[in-house]
Amino acid sequence: MSYPATPWTLCGKAIASLHLVNINQVRSLIPSELQIFSVWPGKTLGCVYLSNYGEGSVLEYSELIVAPAVVSYQNKIGAWISHIYVDNVDSVAGGREIWGLPKELADFTWEEDQRVRVSQGDRNLCTLNYTQQSLAWRQRLTGSTFSVKGVELLKFSAECEARLGLISSQLEVPTDSPFASLGLGQAFLTGRFEQMTLTVAHPAIVGQRVGEVIYR
Asked: Which residues form a coiled coil (predicted)?
């Protein structure tokens, strides 16, 4: 297996939905060094991100990211990814070896530009039904994510430029899905990214781990 050097530039489309998540349901998935950022009493902000990267990308693949919390460390704020799936073995290797992300292989079925299903074998991980953009505008966004690799606590940034529009969506997570226990519920906001260019930077070491992270 081989994978490109950082930064990774990925081109295509994506859908991101935002959810209010109970902090006590995700605390065990977050390294003890990171504080969970509360956006409402007992609630943090979660995100489900589904994308398809095609022509112009350093690797072509589909991706599902489940980020159940916003966290902070030494006055820096970012997302924490608990589950991540792709359909490209090189992306799995790069994600694990560069960013320390728990990438797994999965199958993606994009149906008539209104539904995407993600599965592993006979097990359905989730299904997202979504609508097309009606009003959209060019937007540039940046964000940060924390991860761990060995004993190192990492942080990396991503910059996105896309034609962004607000849409409606419905996320279905079966009870036997690995992230069903997160209780994501219905999204309160969903964005659709078209003509997207996403650049993911090399991670920086920001600290050391003192405990184990349990991925479920």
From this structure: none
What pLDDT digit, counting tens, does each position of 166-181 carry? 999 999 999 999 999 9
Question: Torsions phi, psi of 160, nearest 5?
Answer: -125, 135
- The per-residue pLDDT for range 10-20, each reduced to its tens digit, is 999 999 999 99
For residue 187, the one-letter residue type is A
What torsion, rounded to 10 degrees, do the Cα atoms 183, 184, 185, 191 define? 180
Q: Which domains does the chain have, with CATH numbers?
A: 8-208 (2.40.400.10)
Amino acid, single-letter form, for residue 192 = R
Residue 92 host element (H or E): helix 89-99
Tally Cβ neighbours within 10 Å of residue 156.
22
Tokens of 65: 């990211």
DSSP three-state, residue 69: strand
**Model pLDDT, residue 1:** 63
CB atoms within 10 A of CB 198: 21
* DSSP string for residues in 5-28: PSSEEEEEEEEEEEEEEEHHHHGG
Residue 214 predicted with pLDDT over 50: no
CA distance 94 to 56: 18
